[in-house]
Specification:
With about 350 residues, this protein is mainly alpha-helical. About 70% of the residues lie in helices and about 0% in strands.
Length: about 350
């Protein structure tokens, strides 16, 4: 059995717990390499977003005391002018959030695009480096990645998260497929690979988000004692007459973005073993119930006895009763696959 086929079988047999464990190990081993591009792109997005929304933030700060006063009013005393102001305040908040989110999402998607194929090749034991992955990251398919995860996801997040969850669950593997020259339609390929794994993908994203949120809450609680300014000083940073972009950006980095930046490579690191396992299953021909039956056979070390033949014919009436035996090791399969589920030898010959 070739070494490549051995690797495919090993990846295909990964349990979900092993996928998570391998992802954490990838994160630990590659954090130093990955944090530089992730931190660089994060810094660029922070600078751009703060320049974009500086005037909007100043308007928001000026409106906040008046809006707070409306909130504590007796509802019967709220006027039409108050309602218009609340609506304007809500729209302003939405615009600030969407501009900030889009800026951050675009550069995060760029960083994940560079890291994705590098991590896959590293995990699959290919000889490669991050510099080579960076050089080949920019192609026409990158536009699809940025459109999905840089534009659609931020808008979807502000619409009760459901559209963003669907995009993540259906198309997240495009971070790996968009650079494969052998794949003509990377978006369709990403969707095909994610089919049947929607909740695993979404579960990984939710677990990481919860973990980072908890760590960030503790971090902000501790850092607030050292990085604490009165409201007058904070307001002066945004005032057009005394605006201080350096302090605005530092405040955003130190208080809000530090933990997110540190853990930014974690999601793509955990996603890499999952993608590798799913891709290996597909290359071996483990699809749906046929694939799962073949894997179960391998674990049980089944032989070509008539009792096994009877077992599979009873388990699935739609399967061919005769089945197929590997000519190399004698392993029984209810249907012919691309590779033997036991020894990994290719079966792409005329039988």
């Amino acid at each position: 059995m070739s070494e490549d086929n051995q690797d495919l079988i090993r990846f295909a047999n990964k349990r979900f717990s092993q996928v998570l464990s391998d992802g954490l190990i990838l994160f630990a081993k590659n954090w130093v390499r990955l944090i530089l591009p992730f931190a660089l792109f994060s810094l660029i997005s922070i600078v751009i977003s703060n320049f974009l929304v500086a005037d909007l933030n100043w308007q928001y700060i000026q409106m906040t005391p008046t809006v707070d006063a409306i909130y504590i009013k007796d509802p019967s005393l709220i006027t039409e002018a108050d309602l218009n102001l609340l609506l304007e305040y809500l729209v302003l908040t939405y615009i600030i959030n969407i501009l900030t989110s889009i800026s951050g999402a675009i550069f995060t998607a760029l960083a994940m695009s560079i890291a994705g194929t590098y991590l896959y090749r590293y995990y699959a034991n290919y000889n490669d480096n991050l510099k080579d992955r960076f050089k080949g990251s920019f192609n026409k398919n990158l536009f699809i990645v940025l459109l999905l995860f840089g534009i659609f996801v931020p808008f979807g997040t502000l619409l009760l998260f459901i559209p963003s969850i669907i995009i993540f669950g259906f198309y997240i593997f495009i971070f790996f497929t968009y650079r494969e020259k052998s794949i003509e339609k990377p978006l369709r390929e990403a969707r095909t690979l994610s089919r049947g794994n929607f909740w695993k993908i979404v579960g990984i994203f939710i677990l990481i988000s919860i973990m980072i949120s908890i760590i960030n809450f503790g971090y902000q609680f501790l850092v607030s004692y050292a990085w604490n300014f009165d409201s007058a000083t904070y307001t002066s940073w945004f005032n057009p007459n005394t605006r201080n972009f350096l302090m605005i950006i530092l405040d955003d980095i130190i208080y809000y973005q530090m933990i997110n930046t540190i853990f930014s490579p974690l999601f793509i690191c955990i996603l890499t073993p999952l993608y590798t396992s799913i891709r290996a299953k597909r290359e071996l021909g483990y699809t749906h119930q046929k694939g799962y039956r073949a894997m179960q056979q391998r674990y049980a070390q089944m032989t070509r006895s008539s009792s096994i033949n009877q077992q599979f014919s009873q388990g699935d009436s739609n399967q061919d009763e005769q089945g197929f035996y590997c000519p190399f090791c004698g392993f029984y399969m209810p249907t012919k696959l691309k590779y033997c589920g036991n020894c990994g030898e290719p079966l792409n010959f005329e039988s």
